[in-house]
Amino acid sequence: MAFSSLFTLLDDITAVLDDVSIMSKVAAKKTAGVIGDDLALNANQVSGKDTRPERELPIVWAVAKGSLLNKIILIPLALLLSIYLPQAITVLLLLGGAYLCFEGAEKVLHSLFHRKSSEHHEAVSAEPEASKIKGAIRTDFILSAEIIIIVLGTVQDSSTLTKILILSAIGFGITIFVYGLVGLIVKLDDIGLWMLEKKNALAKMLGNSIIFLMPWLMRSLSILGTIAMFMVGGGIFSHNLSFVHHFIEQLNLSPLLFSLSNFIVGALVGLLLCLISLPILRLLKK
């Protein structure tokens, strides 16, 4: 009898772990865009001309600890919401998608119309370290909330234990992955300089290549992050608003064009939100 109960328990544990493995892969795919955006934003926020090289890794570590605290706060809140008010998940998904679309459109508009003033502002002001850390943690909180809501929407029909395991695995796994990569990215120039000091010709060549490519890498991360905002935000609207979903389905698009449709939806939503909100924000500032 005892052996039978033990085997039943082990079978149940195996079934739960199988569910966690399968659903984690699905959830990870859906959050990939936001993770890319998270990586790009944090790499930009914790680095910069006003950051001393010896302070780069301590800043990354401080933001990573803040990110872990964000997950500790957000995961239980998300679970309570899924139990007591599951209808709110779709609403929060749409709000999160709208925020991503708005942020993406604002970035594009700002880069097109305010590039010179932005460059001047960056040149004359050096952001204090504590302020930089707080800003990065706030950004992480918003993106973490979006990731957790997307994951929760994916595992909404799973058991509570499965939800806890998946949210914890993805939430904390993303923090380790993102800030590990951010730490590597912000020190790539130092790695390049270290290679230049070597006598080996190959090491010198690699060092020169890293230093030359660093500005392009940071710029590419920023562009890819903006594209990811539109893709994820547009995808949320396409999947959660039935009239948008049915319209796109009727077009019978290929997978590539379907992804492009998500980008277009995200860009249109973001542009519309910018046209509505930015004039209001300017009036409030005056």
Core attributes:
single chain, 286 residues, mainly alpha, 10 helices, transmembrane helix
Question: Explain this structure to me?
Answer:
The chain has one domain (2-285). The termini are far apart. Helix 1 (2-46) crosses helix 8. It is 90% helix and 0% strand. The chain has 286 residues and is an all-alpha fold. The protein is globular and about 65 Å long. The longest helix is centred in the N-terminal third of the chain and has 45 residues, at 2-46. 32% of the residues are buried. Residues 9-13 and 118-126 have low confidence and may be disordered. It is built from ten helices and no strands. The chain has helices at 2-46, 53-84, 87-113, 115-124, 129-154, 160-186, 188-196, 201-240, 242-250, 255-285. One of its GO terms (cellular component) is plasma membrane. The chain crosses the membrane at residues 73-102, 164-188, 209-237, 257-281.
Please give the structural blueprint.
Layout: H1 2-46, H2 53-84, H3 87-113, H4 115-124, H5 129-154, H6 160-186, H7 188-196, H8 201-240, H9 242-250, H10 255-285
Helix pairs in contact: 1-5, 1-6, 1-8, 2-5, 2-6, 3-5, 3-8, 3-10, 5-6, 7-8, 8-9, 8-10
Number of strands: 0
Kindly name the structural category: mainly alpha
One letter per element, helices H and strands E, the order comes to HHHHHHHHHH
Number of helices: 10
What coarse outline follows from CA principal-axis ratios?
Answer: globular
Distance between the termini: 77 Å
Q: What share of the residues lie within helices?
A: over 70%
Strand content: under 5%
Low-confidence stretches: 9-13, 118-126
Q: Quickly count the domains.
A: 1
User: Which whole number gives the mean pLDDT?
Assistant: 75
Compute the CA-based radius of gyration.
22 Å
Instruction: Characterize the main sheet.
Output: none
Organism: Haemophilus sputorum
Transmembrane segments: 73-102, 164-188, 209-237, 257-281
Protein name: DUF808 domain-containing protein
Keywords: Membrane, Transmembrane, Transmembrane helix
